[in-house]
Amino acid sequence: PRQNPFDTDTLTRVYLVGSGKGGVGKSSVTANLAVALADKGFRVGLVDADIFGFSIPGQLGIKDKPTRVDEMILPPVAFDVKVISIGMFLDDNKPVAWRGPMLHRAIEQFLCDVYWGDLDFLLIDMPPGTGDVAISLGQLLPTAKTIVVTTPQLAAAEVAERSGAVGLQTGQSILGVIENMSWLVQPDGSRLEIFGSGGAEDVAARLTTLSGSPVPVLGQIPLSIPLREGSDAGNPIVLSDPADPAASAIGEIALKI
Ligand code: ADP
Question: What's a BP term from Gene Ontology annotated to this protein (predicted)?
Answer without folding.
Answer: iron-sulfur cluster assembly
